[in-house]
Amino acid sequence: xxxxxxxxxxxxxxxxxxxxxxxxxxxxxxxxxxxxxxxxxxxxxxxxxxxxxxxxxxxxxxxxxxxxxxxxxxxxxxxxxxxxxxxxxxxxxxxxxxxxxxxxxxxxxxxxxxxxxxxxxxxxxxxxxxxxxxxxxxxxxxxxxxxxxxxxxxxxxxxxxxxxxxxxxxxxxxxxxxxxx
Length: 181
Ligand SMILES: [Mg+2]
Hints:
The protein is built from 5 helices and 6 strands, in the order E-E-E-H-E-H-H-E-H-E-H.
């Protein structure tokens, strides 16, 4: 049996939003990075929690899930973010680049139509800080028709917490398709 996909966002999840005063969590280490297409003299400052490296690696190598990046970092997730956290290599979704001014252009997360087609009938766990009510309804509908779907939505100011990983691990373990670990 194929383990469920784990779709993983970055902004608001691995890189929490800064506080109003611009500060970032003391748990997170700052890095200066150069995303694809960025001018070399114009790097971007990001912050990552080194403890996420070990926690995520344990999950990624558990066999319980099949990881895929689902982020506007796209390929840079695999070449910049993953390596900074020491994560094993895994694929990314080549999300479209819609001309939008809101992350919910149709009342739901802009990534969802692409994800929905890509997943087809595969069970999935999706971690993103930006789901709308319609996304939760979509997940409930998928689940109701026999495609287990779990949305995990961290608070973007705190990002991914160990409890989120505990929750999804418990969920994946209880799936009928789960392998004994
Ligand atoms: Mg996000």
